[in-house]
Amino acid sequence: MGGEDRCANHVDCSRSRRPDARVAAAGLIALAVARGIGRFAFTPILPMMRADAGVSVALGGWLAAANYIGYLAGALSATWLRLSAAATIRVSLLVIGLATLAMGVTHDVAAWIVLRAVAGVASAWVLIHASAWSTERLRRPTLGGVVFAGVGIGIALAGVTCLALMRIDARSALAWNVLGIVALVLGAVTWPMFAEREGVVSAARVASHVPAAPATASDARTAPDTVRLVLCYGAFGFGYIIPATFLPVMARELIEDPAVFGWVWPIFGIAAAVSPIVAARWSGTHIRRVWIVAHLVMAVGVALPIVSRGLPGIALAACDVGGTFMVITMAGMQEARRVAGPSAPRLMAAMTAAFATGQIVGPLCVSGLAGFGVGFAPALAVAALALGGAPSRWLEGRLRRRDDQSRMAITRAGADSVFHFTGSATIFTFEGIWSRLMRFSI
């Protein structure tokens, strides 16, 4: 009898793996198109646009900000619009492909700004609805890390494509056209995967499927804590977006050979693809500790191009920032669910708005400073301080109060050693930043 039950369970498991794999593949491809192409294709193409279209760093900052403004509008509208998830994902993937393709057809700056904004709206809709659609159907929660790995895979795909095109001296218009076609093809592949049976969803359903630790009544209603989460998530948006937009440009300023500097963005994408799969193992416990460590590691990565004025420093920055930005995204959403409980959708919306605002301010900060001819160093310094300063203290303060309530000596000792090591690296890096800035000002 037991053997028959095990056999039956084995058959059920083998059957459930196939739908799970299909759902995970659909979510992975959708996020790869939405983030890797819809949002971040501009990053590896920007050095090409500077070379053949005369795009300045300041104009690059405005084009990036237009995409992030569109993302903010898409994220906010998705919180109250009740739309069919499948239809929204399909249409948004189509819009991303067409908007990307059109970037290589026109050379009008105003049209570029509009197209990047439209792609931003569509990418936000895909992220929100594809996340809800995928997590609702996955029977194995660990596959959520595979879905979010799609972001890094899409980034790496865009980076390798641009690297190959630069090797043959292709123009930036061709890069936009190729990536637009890739987005349309991948969208067509996922078209039958997204079934229409689920009806309508809103962004609130994303929150209902985010894993959460048990929350106490005091945690769920602690207003100062929710403010800390919003501010920290906004600082994250501001801090990571500057290297995420301009790392390939920084690399090209050091070396002209695309076979060398062109690898910076694929490295970023590979790190972003691996990290959520690894972090999924820790997502259920000590999530705020993971968030703090990721913040500090990202701060060091953002500061590295200032301290280490060479290609190795930029490559390490790509690994650090790429390997932490999706971890912080997952940690932030899980912590919001734990803290706010039933009110999590509102908190997530506020965090997303703060994050998007930070992303808008970051490129505009670079554009404003570009007019003074000071390069990227001051903007990177501000971003690193935003990531490694107050947010880590805010999160750690709340963490210490929780530790007083439940002592876990061994785990805490191990985590504290990581904090001390990472904090020391951060202080050392910030000392290097200060000396560089003082030398520059003199």
CATH topology description of the largest domain: Growth Hormone, Chain: A
Portion in helices: over 70%
Tally the beta strands: 2
Query: What overall geometry do the principal axes of the alpha carbons give?
Result: globular
SSE run:
HHHEHHHHEHHHHHHHHHHH
Report the top-level CATH class of the largest domain.
Answer: Mainly Alpha
Low-confidence segments, given as residue ranges, are 1-16, 198-221, 401-442
CATH structural architecture of the largest domain = Up-down Bundle
Continuous helix count:
18
Q: Which structural class do you get from the secondary structure elements?
A: mainly alpha
The largest beta-sheet arranges its strands as 1-2
Using brief descriptors, characterize the structure shown.
442 residues; Growth Hormone, Chain: A; 2 domains; two-stranded antiparallel sheet; disordered N terminus; mainly alpha; disordered C terminus; 82% helix; 18 helices; globular; single chain
